[in-house]
């Protein structure tokens, strides 16, 4: 079983990940980690001015450029955390954030920038995703994605991409934030990966995507359009391949039937909500004073964080697929095959 645990808080000294279940003998270097961590700031940058360098160190599990089959531990230091900026308003619930629910659940919470509910937690997922992406690539599986809508504008090319960014910036000048939709594609998963009931592959992937803060909805294959379709239009017909095997003639199903992979491209689309931290006055409550107040946030925040979710979604997809390929016997659980 390929399993990832992340640790650390947004404004603590560091964050990190522990990866269990990676087979021994996988070639991986610091450049693999560096490349994934660099994606924390996408080229379509509408993000926070928080300038993290993402300095990291691999503490265990890798020796002489190869995995050992033991837990891989990675630490990533925070160099631009400003916890003092959260002292003002520390007892005030931020609308749209997890402050209220975490307080209801735990009673004692870290009020500094959302703690583990912050998007900063996901930097550890990118590090773990570097291992998973490298692992699945050894059997020809790739994960990629695109931002397909931003600030309500579909992105189909460079012109619409610029228009969407301009719209996000325009609304940002008014104090508003915006959301987006992204698409994740998984290629090379052979037919037969997944389980038919509680361990359905789409359920495992869906759960992973929904652990990403700000993801509000998802669909795979034809998604919600299937509800407006007909059976004859929705079904993928079968045909014979050149070697005489049955294959799907299309991919309306998005690479999944009955919870198991078809061998086709697996396609998910994720909806990301607008950043809840905005400089517009919002009604809330100071829980210490038990008073209704109006909050106007000042600080560092993303005008639109959908572009930053894309590499995280790819990392989560890679982690799930790595685990599923091991379970299906496509990858050896203990060591890389020669």
Element layout with pairings:
Elements: E1 3-8, E2 14-20, H1 30-38, E3 56-60, E4 62-63, E5 66-67, E6 72-77, H2 99-106, H3 123-137, E7 142-150, E8 153-154, H4 158-173, E9 180-187, H5 201-210, E10 215-220, H6 231-234, E11 238-240, E12 246-248, E13 256-257, E14 260-261, E15 266-272, E16 282-286, E17 291-295, H7 306-327
Antiparallel strand pairs: 1-2, 2-6, 3-6, 4-5, 7-8, 7-9, 9-15, 10-15, 11-12, 13-14, 16-17
Helix pairs in contact: 1-3, 3-7, 5-7
**What string, H for helix and E for strand, traces the elements in order?**
EEHEEEEHHEEHEHEHEEEEEEEH
Q: In which order are the strands of the major sheet placed?
A: 8-7-9-15-10
State the secondary-structure class. alpha+beta
Q: What top-tier CATH class fits best?
A: Alpha Beta
Spans with pLDDT under 50 lasting ≥5 residues?
Answer: none
Shape descriptor reads globular
Query: The biggest beta sheet, please?
Result: 5 strands, antiparallel
Average pLDDT score: 92
Q: How much of the residues is beta strand, in percent?
A: 15-25%
CATH superfamily: Chorismate synthase AroC
Rg from alpha-carbon coordinates: 21 Å
Percent range of helical residues: 10-25%
CATH topology: Chorismate synthase, AroC fold
Number of helices: 7
What is the number of domains?
1
Number of distinct beta strands: 17
């Amino acid at each position: 079983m390929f399993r990832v645990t992340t640790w650390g808080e947004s404004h603590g000294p560091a964050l990190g990940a522990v990866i269990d279940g990676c087979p021994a003998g996988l070639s991986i270097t610091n450049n693999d980690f560096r490349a994934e961590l660099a994606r924390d700031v996408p080229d379509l940058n509408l993000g926070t001015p928080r300038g993290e360098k993402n300095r990291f160190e691999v503490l265990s599990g890798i020796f002489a450029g190869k995995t050992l089959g033991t837990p891989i531990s990675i630490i990533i230091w925070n160099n631009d955390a400003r916890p003092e900026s959260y002292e003002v308003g520390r007892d005030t619930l931020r609308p749209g954030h997890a402050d209220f629910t975490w307080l209801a659940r735990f009673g004692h919470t870290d009020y500094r920038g959302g703690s583990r509910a912050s998007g900063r937690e996901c930097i550890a997922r990118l590090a773990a995703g570097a291992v998973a992406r490298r692992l699945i690539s050894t059997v020809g599986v790739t994960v990629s994605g695109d931002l397909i809508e931003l600030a309500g504008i579909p992105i189909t090319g460079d012109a619409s991409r610029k228009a969407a960014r301009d719209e996000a910036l325009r609304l940002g000048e008014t104090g508003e934030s915006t959301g987006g939709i992204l698409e994740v594609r998984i290629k090379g998963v052979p037919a037969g990966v997944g389980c038919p009931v509680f361990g359905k592959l789409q359920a495992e992937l869906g759960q992973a995507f929904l652990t990403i803060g700000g993801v509000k909805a998802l669909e795979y294959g034809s998604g919600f359009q299937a509800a407006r379709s007909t059976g004859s239009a929705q079904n993928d017909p079968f045909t014979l391949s050149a070697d005489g095997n049955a294959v799907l003639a299309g991919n309306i199903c998005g690479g999944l039937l009955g919870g198991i992979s078809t061998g086709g491209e697996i396609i998910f689309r994720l909806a990301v909500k607008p950043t809840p931290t905005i400089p517009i006055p919002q009604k809330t409550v100071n829980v210490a004073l038990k008073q209704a107040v109006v909050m106007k946030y000042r600080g560092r925040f993303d005008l639109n964080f959908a572009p930053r979710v894309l590499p995280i979604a790819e990392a989560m997809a890679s982690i799930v697929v790595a685990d599923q390929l091991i379970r299906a016997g496509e990858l050896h659980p203990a060591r890389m095959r020669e």
